[in-house]
Design a protein that fits this description.
The complex is a heterodimer of chains A (353) and B (558).
Chain A: H1 9-36, H2 41-72, H3 79-101, H4 103-106, H5 108-135, H6 144-165, E1 170-171, E2 181-184, E3 187-190, H7 191-213, H8 215-225, H9 227-232, H10 237-263, E4 265-266, H11 272-285, H12 290-312, H13 324-338
Antiparallel strand pairs in A: 1-4, 2-3
Chain B: H1 8-27, H2 30-34, E1 38-40, E2 44-45, H3 46-65, H4 71-98, H5 110-116, H6 122-145, H7 148-166, H8 168-187, E3 188-189, E4 192-193, H9 195-218, H10 220-228, H11 230-282, H12 291-305, H13 316-335, H14 343-362, H15 367-370, E5 383-384, E6 387-388, H16 392-414, H17 417-427, H18 429-434, H19 439-465, H20 475-488, H21 493-509, H22 511-514, H23 517-531, H24 540-547
Helix pairs in contact in B: 1-3, 1-4, 3-4, 3-6, 4-6, 7-9, 11-16, 11-19, 11-20, 11-21, 12-13, 12-14, 12-19, 13-19, 16-19, 17-19, 20-21, 20-23
């Protein structure tokens, strides 16, 4: 990016100055908080655990962005909606009736697995339908066109599901076995958070192995590298892209279940903000890279969770948690200015950014 | 391959698709909502139109794929599509009668089921729906295979009658205002046409179209004669412009308070659309945070003029330049960090900026200055020569002036040196830079001028509503504006106006749509991008750009 503006160093200076100012403010706020020391270590430990569990959700969703971006070079704006559709359907058709009949409390594991299965299947179905109808005909169109289509798809699914299930918040029933907390090395961890973090890590490792070790994963990577050459090598490009969407949306479906376990509610608008955050996470880690998306997700979750208490409060900002979302967007801008290829990104973002 | 007739399997699949669409529209509640808007009193409603729309269209399209000699086959396929499609509705009504599916799908209400079974018992209702859908399929296919000289008059007759019928409520109230109760009663029963007036309308339109087609066919030479008398044509155009101008000036008198209010909303969106059109349409920079500039304009206007505790005592006219300047400045400043970004990244980051502005407006941090969630209240209406501009028709003129300025500026900029630089930027940034275009100033000017109109719109919005809240400035507004310039045609000025009329004006008139507005926008964005990415009134250059990737149709080899 910087070479493009070599002749106008004023811009580089302005951008770097902007970045420097933001970083200085953050450091200043952090120091102020540390000197002031308003919280005990217990609070920080809990905040960090919450951040990691939040981050693992972002990581799971970010995988979908990164995979699709890898093969199609497009931001699948509707990905946050895939996350929402699965869990909201599972809540309405499975979780709530199962709670009423008592099945959920008697067989919690089976119930949870069933909910996860439905969530994944619905997310996948919606994703594949979107890909088939809205994205596939536009593979060769100018890049603005699929992006606008994706924005349209995002709003379409949001308001379609609002029409289906209504606009009110749907409570997700609590699981008795996930109540309470246990302590590891003096840090109390909510059981729900432990489940979220562990299952997210397992899914992420599984997906990484799938992409790197299996033949299908290899075909996806080949398509990401170069569609035409991949097709010449006998790879069915359409099929590889479909599988990519399926994998990404399956991760989103799982993330939906984990989200519902933590926040105990679902809503037609719930996919939007996590979707944007997850995209930020994918860019932060280096878009197109699976480990990058995971790392970016965890980092973003941590920053968001400890940020308000760590540096915003030190700056004397009232009710700093209100500005949580500002942190994510500011991080996105900072990353794009300072290191557009992301933390683990290898390919220069030049051709894509 | 193109001439291959389709087989029965494709027909059934098409029927299933059509049925799925009808079913979806039913279960999300749109059909039940629309069933309250009658088209012909006591006969059918907008709900029916949307219920049978998909099978009708599908039958029409499918019949077109049958060889033209096989007329009965085409009709049969149409019938089949209708019947197959109706199966979904039958399943829905049956399920809803025996199970409580409303606890899952909130919009499967008794009203909907009653509508779908025509208020009869389940069995009779189901038979009726199968028959109706079948007939509709038949009609759709039949219309397709009619000879051209009948097809055009009939389709336009049906189309216009239905469209006028949908707006009959507005039409009725205007006719009553101008011609009195008697005329109103003659044409309308309640809010809708009665059977007689609708039939007359249909016959009139069909007749007129038929006659018009004949006339056109008979006298193709006369048009050319017209072309030669250049002077007459110019004069005619000037007269047209004059009439249009006068209409614009007296519009509030013709429209009445409610329609003027609607027009004002459309006007504000036109202003925003023209601004965003410069950024997205001219310069190709996809900005999803455009609502931020609207918010800055509105908040500056609000805080400067408010008579409440927050206010600084400015008047509308002294605050207006400050507000517009502030949002222009915001546009330039927020433009700097995104100078190096393209396409998708730019979209997400600008969206982030828009959200940041909204979050800041909502936060306790700025609450002492701009009111936080409580917003800014008691914003005075503008005053002119000691007269307070209270009424919507006064605001109308302010908005009109704003829109005219925006149209003029956009029009002059489009073909200017700057406009051509933007166009080069849109087509290829690297090549544009190689041609010696200064990317920094060109981009910042686009962001700045775009934000200028956004801010102007916001400032007028603030004083029009007299109170503003952070919730008025969420992302949905940006998406609305983007949708309207895309539907109208990126980079096209008449497109922006038409887009705003369709996307903002229509849902206000057909209030049932308002609830499903964003759904419609979503569908529109997808359908437009798939079928007509250049919009309804395309700008010529962009049209070529957007179709450049398409290869010429392959020649069939079999």
């Amino acid at each position: 990016m910087l070479q493009r503006f070599q002749n106008i160093s004023f811009l580089d200076i302005a951008l770097w100055a902007l970045a420097a100012i933001i970083i200085t403010v953050v450091i200043w706020g952090t120091i102020a908080t540390i000197i002031d020391n308003p919280y005990n270590p217990q609070f920080w430990a809990e905040t960090i655990v919450f951040g990691i569990s939040q981050g693992s959700l972002y990581a799971l969703i970010a995988i979908g962005y990164t995979l699709v971006y890898g093969v199609l070079f497009m931001i699948n704006f509707a990905h946050g909606e895939f996350f929402m559709t699965g869990i909201i359907t599972a809540t309405i058709f499975l979780a709530q009736p199962m709670k009423e009949t008592g099945f959920l409390d008697n067989y919690p594991i089976i119930s949870l697995l069933a909910i996860a299965a439905v969530s994944i299947l619905v997310s996948m179905a919606i994703a594949l339908l979107t890909e088939r109808v809205a994205y596939r005909p536009l593979r060769k169109a100018p890049r603005l066109v699929p992006l606008i289509t994706a924005i349209g798809a995002s709003f379409f699914w949001q308001y379609f599901f609002r029409g289906l299930y209504g606009s009110e918040v749907k409570p997700f029933p609590p699981f008795e076995i996930l109540k309470g907390k246990f302590t590891i090395a003096g840090v109390p961890i909510l059981k729900t958070h432990a489940v979220v973090i562990v299952s997210a890590v397992i899914m992420l490792i599984g997906l990484y192995l799938f992409v790197m070790k299996t033949k299908v994963g290899k075909s996806i990577r080949a398509v990401a590298e170069n569609k035409d050459v991949a097709a010449l090598m006998g790879i069915n490009v359409d099929r590889a892209i479909t599988i990519t969407f399926a994998m990404g949306s399956a991760m989103a479906g799982i993330a939906g279940v984990l989200y519902a376990l933590v926040f105990r509610q679902t809503h037609f608008f719930m996919g939007f903000i996590p979707g944007i955050k997850a995209f930020t996470a994918a860019v932060l880690g280096g878009i197109g890279s699976v480990p990058g998306a995971a790392l970016g997700g965890f980092l973003l979750g941590m920053f968001e969770s400890i940020g308000p208490a760590l540096f915003l409060e030190g700056l004397g900002i009232p009710a700093p948690h209100q500005l949580k979302d500002v942190i994510a967007f500011t991080m996105l801008v900072l990353v794009l200015i300072l290191r557009p290829q992301g933390i683990l990104g290898e390919r220069l973002a030049e051709e894509k950014a | 391959m193109f001439n291959k007739s389709i087989d029965i399997r494709d027909v059934i699949i098409n029927g299933l698709l059509a049925g799925l669409i009808s079913l979806s529209l039913s279960v999300i509640g749109l059909i039940a909502l629309l069933s309250e808007r009658e088209i012909i009193s006591g006969l059918f409603t907008t709900g029916h139109i949307f219920l049978v729309g998909a099978p009708f269209a599908m039958a029409y399209v499918t019949a077109g794929k049958v060889l033209s000699e096989e007329k009965s086959k085409a009709l049969g396929y149409g019938l089949l599509i209708g019947v197959v499609a109706s199966v979904f509705i039958v399943v829905l009504t049956t399920l809803a009668t025996f199970f409580d599916i409303r606890r899952f799908l909130v919009n499967v209400t008794p009203v909907l089921i009653e509508f779908l079974t025509f208020g009869k018992s389940l069995l009779i209702g189901n038979i009726l729906i199968v028959v109706m859908m079948g007939v509709i399929g038949l009609v759709g296919a039949g219309l397709r295979i009619l000879p051209e000289q009948f097809k055009h008059p009939l389709t336009s007759g049906l189309g216009w009658t239905i469209i006028l019928g949908m707006f009959s409520e507005i039409l009725a109230s205007r006719i009553r205002a101008f011609f009195g109760r008697g005329v109103h009663k003659l044409i309308f029963t309640g809010k809708a046409f009665n059977v007689v007036s609708a039939t007359i309308l249909l016959v009139l339109i069909v007749g007129f179209t038929y006659w018009n087609d004949l006339r056109k066919k008979d006298q193709p030479e006369k048009e050319e004669v017209n072309d030669q008398t250049d002077g007459t044509k110019k004069r005619l155009q000037r007269i047209k412009m004059g009439v249009f101008g006068v209409l614009l000036l007296i519009a509030p008198l013709l429209l009445g308070t409610y329609l003027t209010e609607v027009t004002n909303n459309v006007g504000l969106y036109i202003l925003m659309g023209l601004g965003l059109n410069i950024v997205v349409g001219f310069a190709g920079l996809l900005d999803l945070g455009y609502v931020g500039f609207f918010a800055v304009g509105a908040y500056v206007m609000g805080v400067l003029t408010s008579e409440g505790a927050l206010g600084l005592g400015f008047t509308f006219w002294t605050a207006l330049p400050v507000a517009v300047l502030a949002s222009t400045l915001a546009g330039v400043i927020l433009g700097i960090p995104v100078l190096g970004m393209r396409g998708d990244y730019l979209a997400i980051v600008t969206m982030g900026f828009g959200e940041i502005i909204r979050i800041l407006a909502l936060s306790d941090l700025l609450k002492p200055y701009i009111g936080g969630a409580q917003g800014v209240l008691q914003i005075p209406k503008p005053e002119l020569f000691g007269l307070t501009l209270l009424h919507p028709r006064h605001i109308y003129y302010i908005i009109l002036v704003g829109v005219l300025i925006a149209v003029y500026v956009s029009w002059r900029l489009r073909d200017s040196r700057l406009g051509r630089q933007w166009m080069a930027l849109r087509e290829d940034e690297d090549v544009a830079e190689a041609m010696g275009i200064n990317l920094v100033s060109t981009k910042l000017l686009a962001f700045g001028i775009g934000a200028f109109f956004g801010g102007l719109s916001g400032a007028i919005f603030a004083s029009k509503l007299s109170s503003i809240f952070p919730h008025s400035f969420n992302l949905v507004v940006s998406i609305n504006v983007l949708s309207l310039i895309i539907v109208g045609g990126l980079g096209s000025l008449p497109g922006v106006i038409v887009g705003a009329l369709i996307l903002v004006g229509l849902p206000e008139l057909l209030r049932e749509f308002a609830e499903h507005r964003m759904l419609m926008y979503g569908i529109l964005l997808i359908v437009m991008m798939l079928s007509k990415p250049e919009g309804f009134i395309p700008s010529k250059v962009l049209q070529r750009e957007l179709h450049a990737h398409e290869e010429p149709e392959p020649v069939s080899s079999d």
